[in-house]
Structure to design on (200 residues):
């Protein structure tokens, strides 16, 4: 998709604040500091639409971005090692869970993992939820440019093995620096959104 118009519709903390229209929603989820903001900015050709922070746990709301008035990109709070209070983590966890379990407009969840590291137990739990929700599993392996050629081969296999991916599982290496993977991700999103509109 050629993105010319994109805007933050709302930063929500409860279902009552979610957008009321019925555009398809693509949700992005991953542990804190995995690179969600960088991915979102690259996909929509913006430098700072989604705020990027070196401090894990900066996103504490569910952010809905209207893309071309055709779909929403939904940025969910990061999970894992964010340096926030236990109470705050529990609040985020419930916020994410409520959205994933109740949102009818949700057509795909994209799980981000850091290509430099073995996926965490939290990543496994999230992937298992996605598999229950949808047969389409899409993993984006971020920070791809930080690996050597040898590491790329080894780490992509490590990610696939750890997440126990079958032929239904898709891993797309992505670099916010070079843009590698951007077109492949958009091809999948476009196809999913087209199917969503066709079924309505």
């Amino acid at each position: 998709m050629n993105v010319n118009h994109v805007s933050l519709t709302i930063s929500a903390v409860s279902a009552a604040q979610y957008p009321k229209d019925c555009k398809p929603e693509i949700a992005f989820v991953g542990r804190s500091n995995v690179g969600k903001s960088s991915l979102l900015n690259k996909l929509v050709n913006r430098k700072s639409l989604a705020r990027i922070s070196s401090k894990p746990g900066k996103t504490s709301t569910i952010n809905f971005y209207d893309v071309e008035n055709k779909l929403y990109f939904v940025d969910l709070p990061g999970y894992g090692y964010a340096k926030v209070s236990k109470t705050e983590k529990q609040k985020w966890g419930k916020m994410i869970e409520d959205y994933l379990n109740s949102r009818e407009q949700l057509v795909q969840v994209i799980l981000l993992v850091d290509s430099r590291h073995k996926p965490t137990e939290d990543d496994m739990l999230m992937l298992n939820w996605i598999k229950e929700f949808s047969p389409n599993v899409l993993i984006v392996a971020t920070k791809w440019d930080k690996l050597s050629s040898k590491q790329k081969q080894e780490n992509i296999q490590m990610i696939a093995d750890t997440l126990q991916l079958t032929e239904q599982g898709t891993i797309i290496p992505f670099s916010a620096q070079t843009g590698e993977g951007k077109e492949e991700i958009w091809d999948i999103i476009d196809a999913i959104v087209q199917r969503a509109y066709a079924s309505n």
In short: The chain has a mean pLDDT of 87. The beta strands are 6-12, 25-30, 62-67, 71-75, 106-114, 137-142, 169-173. The first strand starts at residue 6 and ends at 12. The chain has one domain: 6-199.
